[in-house]
């Protein structure tokens, strides 16, 4: 039995009420996938193992059983066959006796596995309560720690009761509210006495640490009230989900639980209302020894000791803020009486307001201090005030505050001031000055040996660095920030690292780094830093094709910026616009791009302004009625505003405008310049974008293919699958693309459509013939010509002979046709000397029809030389050429054994064959060769499809193809035999007999041998 239990899969969910245990278990039984029972019901009626294997038994409410009953149930479960999968759930951890009697390993999953993530909280609020504000989702997540039932209470309070986001915690935890009553009755009342005692202590302690609880218990200041140590109670509360992890061995109460317990204490329902002096003194000393001054200050505040709280804040405020405690510091400072305020405490106050996004409040505090004739020039004051303006994007003001005669090497504040100055210079484009100031700051920081100063100096140096040098500075800053416990600087490093990875086109890694930055910055960093982290995360997600997630991040950028008064919304608006552009929402995209441009102009943010103008240019050029004038203005502004590193984007935008206007040489010059600039700045993403323009404006098909292949390779290596697939689609559209390229393009189209991308460069997906290439000719089933996605109207040709000229050139498949031969074919009854000029006029008409905007050289589509006149099939897409190319590709796939892909290609070939080539010219001898070749290829495709369907076991489809072949040629003996054999194999014997009779009749009508009836028996 032990071996049997060891091999069985057994999972136990342990969490407090409302964590969704029952919902999870019921989902495991959906569609008869398992058997659901409560523990009491299972004891009353033992489980009978069904005949079908494997089986799943789901047991709920295990904690409803007393310990002896749990032990008895475990022994019953241990006797079940090994292939019975067990899933159990309990509100409290099962007794040790239960696990012992189970006689096997069980995997325990707790509240942390069931809690909702931030994205899931946002989805619940959006889909179930109609709340779309991403910032509200963050607040709900913080208050509830993702506890599903509490998320629902919060959603109902916000949506139905009209509660504001800032009043949310009070609204759901005040005495008498539904959520407070539920927590009291379903959660707190369920806890054993010892755990309840620890909960009371946890209201005063944040964080709740193992060592602190052990010390309090040893000192007689914490009574667990249950067997074992306080650690047993801590583990109990952590497993149930009332305490949530806060790093290492520390935890914190779920804020909603803490608030309910606080209300109970104040109402006299529990505790004395305030921890004892001995308790406070012991905990403050413990927090101080373990470098947790913010926890010590908060406890002093709760204990009513403002003077000691102010002293701790003044002495350790910088460390508290660096660790991400800005909001808590601001809250504590509000309770400090005026007599306890010092200059150092006011510096902490201003910086804390900056950290929490109260820009106006921070400016008021620092403005008053800067007016002080004695302390106004203090380096610590100056860099802090400058950082407020830096955060708002007001770099000239920040630089002015930092430009004071301070010797950086004499103090940490002096280094921080120099680092801020170097950063402002970098953002203003004064790279050489920034590099020099940052290098001096690094030298001084190393001399002082202060990790906080080192981190700031290396970050400033990284802003002016590139490649390995930038990475070295960021790595040094990261190590120094970690040693200093400076969470804010760690996030700054992560933000800069993510930006560098995006520039280097390493999107999966950038996404991971940016996600870490966002997670850390949520409640621990200044809003400006959170905005930067969100922008990076959105940018990386956008490149990876995770459009919904990207848009949510960009929406939060806008929401945070507006909420706290930051001039940083432009990057979020750009991201929203770019998502919508890629998803084909042209008007919404245009509006968002225009808003992004206005917002970026207002703060002279060229890092956003240039990409926004470039994106706006593309949107203005898309669609059936491009706005060329507005696109030209946007591209010209982008060129004027672009710093060197962004010049490739501006050049590409200008190139697309020139191409749309028909100025091909200008477009080619801009494309070449963009490639050169992108390679020089080592911007892989800009290079790939420039190469796509090169392909579009290239006269040489080989050059276009090479450019697109390089672009695809860059995007693929970067992890930008949608962009790589876009390049593959464009490769498949190059006139003359072979069957393999066209097949790969169709697969890429399907992947893009699944992502919600409806078009590539204006052509709908799956690619029709509406703008897939500039010039497309159809001759299968009838003659049609499309230019830029629109059919050429009949009057544009001016004569029937112009259309006939194109048809004849198509029939010769790119081979030159001598002029004399053409004249005889077009005007057979006229004298030769009279038709030479007519042919020249006709050639001019055809060239005008195929290139009405005159964007391309004269012989781009139709060549004329001494050998004759020919159609350049490398620049004109012809449906019959694609048919023949697909047929060759399918034959290769069959030979290499890739039957599934071959079948897919042949199905597309059959769809492409709309009728015989030159169906509107049935009697012209010049059409016969290509017409018969295309027809033969199509018939062979139908035969191959019948054979592949038969081999794949798709007999009904095989019958369909064979019947179609007989409709074309009723005397094909091989097809007749195949149809009868397939019908017999499918068991459709009546149809097989009728097909056999038709076969015999057809053979008799042409005096051919009649088949033997043995075929109907499945024998040759």
Residues in helix, %: 55-70%
Q: What is the arithmetic mean of pLDDT? A: 85
State the CATH superfamily name of the domain at 901-1017: Tetratricopeptide repeat domain
Radius of gyration: 38 Å
**Spans of at least 5 consecutive residues with low confidence:** 1-6, 767-772
Spatial order of the strands forming the largest sheet = 2-3-4-1-5
Multimeric state: single chain
Number of helices: 50
| Named CATH architecture of the domain at 901-1017 | Alpha Horseshoe
Strand content: 5-15%
Just give the CATH class of the domain at 901-1017: Mainly Alpha
At the fold tier of CATH, the topology name of the domain at 901-1017 is Serine Threonine Protein Phosphatase 5, Tetratricopeptide repeat
**What is the terminal separation in angstroms?**
59 Å
Please, could you describe this protein's structure?
TPR repeats lie at residues 531-564. It comes from Actinoplanes sichuanensis. Residues 878-1004 form the Bacterial transcriptional activator domain. With 1020 residues, the protein is mainly alpha-helical. Among the domains are: 2-114, P-loop containing nucleotide triphosphate hydrolases (Rossmann fold, 3-Layer(aba) Sandwich), CATH 3.40.50.300; 379-482, Serine Threonine Protein Phosphatase 5, Tetratricopeptide repeat; 486-566, Alpha Horseshoe (Serine Threonine Protein Phosphatase 5, Tetratricopeptide repeat), CATH 1.25.40.10; 775-881, Orthogonal Bundle (Arc Repressor Mutant, subunit A); 901-1017, Tetratricopeptide repeat domain (Serine Threonine Protein Phosphatase 5, Tetratricopeptide repeat). It is built from 50 helices and 16 strands. It has a five-stranded parallel beta sheet with strand order 2-3-4-1-5. It has a four-stranded mixed beta sheet with strand order 13-12-11-16. Strands 6-8-7 form a three-stranded antiparallel beta sheet. The protein is flat, with a radius of gyration of 38 Å. 49% of the residues are buried. Mean pLDDT is 85; it is low at 1-6 and 767-772.
């Amino acid at each position: 039995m032990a071996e049997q239990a060891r091999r069985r899969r057994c999972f136990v969910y342990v969490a407090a009420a409302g964590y969704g245990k029952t919902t999870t278990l019921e989902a495991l039984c959906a569609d008869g996938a398992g058997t659901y029972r409560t523990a009491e019901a299972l004891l009353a009626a033992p489980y009978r193992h069904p005949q079908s294997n494997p089986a799943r038994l789901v047991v709920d409410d295990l904690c409803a059983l007393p310990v002896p009953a749990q032990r008895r149930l475990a022994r019953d479960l241990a006797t079940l066959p090994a292939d019975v999968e067990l899933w159990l759930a309990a509100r409290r951890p099962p007794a040790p006796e239960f696990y012992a009697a189970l006689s096997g390993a069980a995997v325990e999953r707790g509240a942390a596995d069931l809690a909702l993530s931030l994205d899931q909280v946002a989805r619940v609020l959006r889909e179930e309560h109609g709340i779309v504000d991403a910032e509200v989702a963050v607040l709900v997540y913080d208050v509830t720690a993702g506890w599903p039932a509490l998320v629902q209470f919060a959603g109902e309070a916000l949506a139905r009761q009209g509660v504001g986001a800032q009043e949310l915690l009070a609204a759901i935890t005040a005495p008498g509210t539904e959520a407070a009553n539920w927590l009291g009755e379903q959660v707190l009342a369920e806890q054993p006495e010892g755990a309840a005692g620890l909960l009371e202590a946890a209201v005063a302690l944040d964080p709740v640490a193992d060592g602190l609880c052990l010390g309090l218990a040893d000192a007689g200041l914490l009574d667990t009230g249950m067997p074992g140590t306080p650690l047993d109670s801590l583990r109990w509360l952590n497993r149930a989900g009332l305490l949530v992890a806060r790093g290492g061995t520390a935890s914190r109460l779920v804020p909603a639980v803490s608030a309910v317990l606080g209300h109970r204490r104040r109402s006299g329902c529990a505790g004395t209302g305030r921890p004892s002096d001995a308790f406070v003194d012991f905990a403050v000393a413990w927090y101080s020894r373990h470098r947790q001054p913010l926890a010590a200050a908060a406890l002093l505040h709760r204990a009513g000791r403002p003077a000691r709280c102010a002293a701790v804040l003044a002495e350790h405020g910088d460390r508290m803020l660096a660790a991400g405690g800005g909001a808590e510091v601001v809250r504590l400072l509000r309770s400090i009486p005026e007599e306890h305020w010092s200059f150092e405490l006011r510096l902490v106050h201003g910086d804390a307001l900056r950290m929490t996004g109260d820009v106006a409040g921070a400016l008021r505090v620092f403005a008053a201090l800067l007016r002080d004739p004695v302390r106004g020039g203090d380096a610590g004051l100056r860099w802090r005030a400058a950082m407020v303006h830096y955060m708002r994007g007001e770099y000239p003001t920040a630089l002015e505050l930092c430009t004071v005669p301070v010797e950086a090497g004499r103090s940490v504040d002096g280094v921080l001031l120099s680092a801020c100055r170097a950063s402002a210079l970098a953002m203003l484009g004064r790279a050489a000055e920034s590099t020099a100031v940052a290098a001096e700051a690094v030298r001084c920081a190393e001399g002082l040996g202060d990790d906080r100063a080192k981190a700031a100096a290396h970050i400033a140096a990284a802003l002016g660095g590139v490649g390995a040098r930038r990475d070295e500075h960021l790595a040094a800053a990261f190590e120094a920030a970690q040693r200093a416990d400076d969470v804010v600087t760690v996030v700054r490093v992560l933000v800069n690292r993510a930006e560098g990875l995006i520039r280097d086109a390493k999107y999966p890694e950038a996404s991971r780094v940016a996600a870490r930055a966002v997670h850390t910055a949520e409640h621990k960093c200044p809003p400006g830093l959170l905005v930067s982290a969100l922008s990076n995360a959105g940018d990386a997600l956008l490149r990876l094709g995770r459009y919904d997630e990207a848009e949510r991040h960009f929406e939060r950028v806008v929401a945070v910026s507006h909420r706290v008064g930051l001039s940083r919304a432009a990057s979020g608006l750009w991201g929203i616009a770019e998502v919508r552009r890629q998803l084909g929402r042209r008007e919404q995209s245009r509006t968002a791009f225009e808003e992004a441009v206005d917002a970026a102009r207002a703060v002279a943010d060229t890092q956003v302004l240039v990409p926004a103008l470039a994106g706006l240019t593309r949107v203005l050029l898309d669609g059936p009625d491009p706005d060329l004038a507005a696109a030209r203005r946007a591209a010209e502004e982008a060129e004027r505003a672009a710093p060197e590193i962004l010049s490739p984007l501006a050049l590409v935008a200008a190139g697309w405008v020139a191409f749309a206007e028909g100025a091909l040489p200008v477009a080619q010059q801009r494309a070449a310049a963009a490639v050169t600039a992108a390679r020089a700045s080592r911007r892989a993403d800009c290079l790939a974008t420039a190469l796509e323009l090169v392909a579009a404006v290239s006269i040489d098909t080989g050059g276009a293919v090479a450019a697109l292949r390089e672009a695809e390779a860059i995007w693929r290596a970067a992890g930008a699958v949608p962009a790589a697939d876009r390049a593959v689609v464009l490769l498949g559209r190059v006139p003359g693309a072979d069957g393999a390229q066209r097949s790969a393009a169709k697969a890429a189209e399907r992947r893009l459509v699944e992502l919600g991308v409806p078009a590539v460069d204006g052509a709908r997906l799956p690619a029709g013939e509406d703008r897939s290439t500039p010039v497309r000719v159809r001759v299968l089933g009838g003659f049609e010509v499309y230019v830029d996605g629109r059919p050429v109207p009949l009057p544009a040709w001016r004569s029937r002979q112009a259309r006939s000229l194109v048809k004849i050139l198509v029939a010769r498949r790119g081979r030159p046709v001598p002029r004399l031969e053409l004249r005889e074919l077009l005007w057979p009854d006229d004298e030769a000397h009279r038709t030479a000029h007519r042919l020249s006029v006709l050639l001019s008409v055809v060239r005008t029809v195929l290139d009405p905007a005159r964007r391309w050289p004269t012989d781009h589509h139709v060549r004329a030389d001494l050998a004759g006149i020919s159609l350049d099939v490398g620049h004109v897409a012809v449906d019959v050429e694609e048919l023949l190319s697909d047929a060759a590709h399918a034959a290769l796939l069959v030979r290499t054994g890739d039957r599934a892909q071959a079948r897919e290609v042949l199905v597309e070939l059959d769809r492409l064959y709309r009728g015989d080539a030159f169906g509107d010219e049935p009697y012209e001898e010049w059409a016969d060769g290509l017409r018969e070749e295309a027809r033969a290829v199509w018939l062979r495709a139908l035969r191959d499809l019948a054979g592949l369907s038969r081999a794949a076991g798709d007999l009904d489809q095989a019958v369909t193809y064979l019947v179609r072949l007989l409709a074309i040629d009723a005397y094909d003996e091989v097809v007749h035999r195949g149809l009868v054999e397939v019908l017999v194999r499918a068991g459709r014997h009546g149809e097989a007999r009728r097909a056999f009779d038709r076969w015999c009749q057809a053979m008799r009508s042409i005096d051919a041998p009649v088949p033997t009836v043995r075929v109907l028996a499945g024998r040759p």
